């Protein structure tokens, strides 16, 4: 396993580059190479796609993906942090399982929806788009899943809770504070009846840290 990035590492020392539109398009085309035009597709959401999918869908189901687990394993230098003060966002790291949501997209809207989805999720190429089987109460579905690319310089292996809390609390980016992102995800999972014990523990630690701040 890749060792955790030491706390003393200066964030600007971490390589960071946004993908070009051509790189994103090539990745999208590769993901759709076996898709038949007009065929509905499923997309698996495990983080912000649960509470902010930003696309219309025909159906949504609770689903379980095996072989990967939800983790704050991706440095965010744009959406929930900056190059100087990166935040952490969720990725699907190897091992275990993950409960989330699958969304069925209308086949005639796939290219339009996927173009927007790639702009959102593949800005740096830190994820690997994969078609994986997900278990649902109504039967298995094959869904597009963005799994963590461990070869990406933005990947970060598991850190101690105290360090994760410190990183999350100090970071903020284009979409707002990293704390809001983590807490909104925890709340969305709770409302969906999805139990993620590690995330629940981090949410409690973040709440406790907030309550410990002195009154102004």
From TrEMBL:
InterPro entries: ChaC (IPR006840), GGCT-like (IPR013024), GGCT-like_sf (IPR036568). GO terms for molecular function: glutathione specific gamma-glutamylcyclotransferase activity; transferase activity. One of its GO terms (cellular component) is cytoplasm. It comes from Bordetella genomosp. 10. This is glutathione-specific gamma-glutamylcyclotransferase. Keywords: Lyase, Transferase. Its EC number is 4.3.2.7. Gene3D superfamilies: Gamma-glutamyl cyclotransferase-like (3.10.490.10).
